[in-house]
Amino acid sequence: MSDEKNVSKLLIIKREREELNALIKEIAHACDEAHKQLEKWDKADPALDMKNPGLPYYEVKSREAIAKTKAKELLSEKGKDFELHLLLAQDEALTYGYHLAGVLRAGEQNAERARFLDQLSLQLQKLQGKLITMLLSNYSWQPDR
Fold first, then answer.
1. How far is CA 40 from CA 4, 24, 46, 50, 113, in A?
2. Which of 7, 31, 37 is nearest to 21 (CA)?
3. Is the separation of the CB atoms in 125 and 98 below 8 Å?
4. Is the pLDDT of residue 9 over 70?
5. Which tens digit of pLDDT belongs to each residue from 107-133?
6. What pLDDT is recorded for position 3?
7. pLDDT score of 30
């Protein structure tokens, strides 16, 4: 959530279509709100330990390298290339986010957190649906003859 809540900052330096801006801002807002809630729970319950990803060292380093590469590519691209790569990156993030929320929900004993994770998973799925609709509306394909 912490990375995705800041994605709309890219749009400060990139001037893109209003439709893209609106969707990216909606994703960033949803992730910011979720991040704030997760931080509150992390502070209230040290057993959650959300700073520890619980992943092997090389997995963490691979994810960091991927994020750095994507950020560099997005900063250097513009127009259609920028939009396509941004939407593809957001599709990956939303897919991961809604699945992670669902998996976490399955093991969550706290009713309030379980409801939150259900709602977050659904919200991220809906945002991904909007993203796919945007991709498809700008996609053209000619069948082989």
1. 18, 24, 11, 11, 11
2. 7
3. yes
4. no
5. 999 999 999 999 999 999 999 999 999
6. 67
7. 94
- Tens of pLDDT, residues 38-89: 999 989 988 887 887 788 999 989 988 998 998 888 888 888 888 898 999 9
Using the structure block, give the residue that is written with the tokens 């619980």. 54
What is the C-alpha separation between 35 and 62, in angstroms, rounded? 23
Report domain extents, the chain: 4-26+36-137
CA dihedral 129, 131, 136, 137 (to 10 degrees): 110
Q: In whole angstroms, how large is the CA radius of gyration of the chain?
A: 17
User: Which DSSP string do the residues of 60-121 spell out, in sequence order?
Assistant: HHHHHHHHHHHHHHHHH--HHHHHHHHHHHHHHHHHHHHHHHHHHHHH---HHHHHHHHHHH
Return the half-sphere exposure (C-beta side, CA atoms, 13 A cut-off) of residue 102.
11
